[in-house]
Amino acid sequence: MSATVQTATADSNGRTPAPVDSDRTKAENSLGRRLVAPAVVLMLLVTAFPMLRALYLSLFSYSLTAPDEREFVGLANYVTALTDSLFWRDTANTVMIMLVTVFFELIIGFAFAMVMHKVIFGRGVIRTSILIPYGIITVVSGFAWQFAFSNTNGFVNSWLPFVGDDFNWFAQYESSIAAIMVSEIWKTTPFMSLLLLAGLAQVSEDMIEAAKVDGASWWQRLWKVILPNMKAAIMVAVLFRALDAYRIFDNIFVMTAGANGTESISFLTYRQVIEQFQLGIGSALSVLLFLSVLIVAFLIVKLFKVDLSQARQEK
Prior knowledge:
Layout: H1 23-57, E1 60-61, E2 71-72, H2 76-82, H3 85-118, H4 123-135, H5 138-148, H6 156-159, H7 173-200, H8 205-213, H9 218-229, H10 231-246, H11 250-255, H12 265-275, H13 279-304, H14 308-311
Antiparallel strand pairs: 1-2
Helix pairs in contact: 1-13, 2-13, 3-7, 3-10, 4-7, 5-7, 7-10, 8-9, 10-13, 12-13
């Protein structure tokens, strides 16, 4: 099927009509909807009831220790959460962990992706070695890094002589949150590099060679050719990792158990529901977490402003 694109011309009022999708775009969109429809239906069947149940329970003052005293309170649980300094402190922790970890994962992951893309000899061994941390269960990784940062038998203090052999990383907020972020970066950077490697594979070697012929340096080729053509892949990588980092729970649970003010929103929700049996306020927190994840996703998509038709190199 030949792709036909309507040329946008200004009308008598000087306004340019909205561009019309080509036949190829319409066909790809239709195929995409049919392919994802079964997965969407299955996900809705599995997740719709828990989500609606959480939304319903968030409107009640409901404790498992006194189930007969359940009382409808409307939006009171949301007001309680949004006016509590603890919620905003944990939100700040969550946002900081997300920003710092995704930033370093993007840089390190891109370096790993470049190595995996360019290496010729031992490519399989190098790629497998880089991806090993991502294959380790997060809880196991958390325990390993808790041991590594231990001031009695860990090895981190011996590698960093300026902190001292007896420095306790889990005695104060700053070092505790740093240890958590290091473990998160080590565990999930391979996932970032895998997504960026897929983006690198889409960059035309002819464009890079043309830039070399024009006398462009390595940095100029990186900023003017490679990164602009990887914009869609970078957006996907950042989006996936940001949403995952925003829901961080395992590393905090294993390494600090929320001590020294290192709680995240997910950990705060866990405390309310599992430890204190407060289903009402816990459900409200889970709904707020879900809404904040949607906001993060919206902001990332708007920030990158990726033109998908251009990413597909559609003419």
